[in-house]
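Attaching the record inline, Q. Sequence:
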Amino acid sequence: MQTIQSAVHIMHADPVMTAGLHAILAERPELRVTTHLSQPEAQRVARVLVADYDSGIALARQPVPDAFRHPGVLIVTQLDKEWEVRIAMDAGVHGYVLQSCSPDELQKAVTALSQGQRYLSESVTRSVADSLSRETLTGRETDVLQLLAQGCCNKSIARKLGIGVGTVKTHVKGVMSKLDATARTHAVVVATQRGLIRPGSGVHPATYS
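Structure, as predicted:
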């Protein structure tokens, strides 16, 4: 009996990754694999799109005419911070695996998406589950946390954000409670480990409501 193939189109920004992904996925007879470098027109009929982080989010957010089915978008990336994963999921990405995954897991993820299912690698699933089990920071608490990471005192934070010192103290207390931190520096360390802030950055990576 002839195998019915699912069209898989690779749109990863890294040419080396694209070659590796193609080599791994092309081993599966049920997958018809194309790349954007050689066959960009194949995107129109693809059932699964395999992309890097930024491209994957952009593809998931693209509106699709009612007459067409939105292809499953699988992100293959080294980005594993909880906020990065949550942003991708909120954008509508269907699958998320890390570049360090095994060939078997990559093939399993693509097969799942081709069947209309979702797929998250085990480590990514754990990250999302952990983030959902914790209280999230508000946007203002994240602003305060970012300034704490820059070494700002309460007065400086108040001035930069245009709020009172008392309000800053309230936000700092909230941050430390939600991060289960024992000191301001401990809060910064925990937040950095979780990917909530980037050391040296003046702009926080995500706003939590």
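The first strand starts at residue 6 and ends at 11. The chain has two domains: 6-131, 139-194.

More tomorrow.
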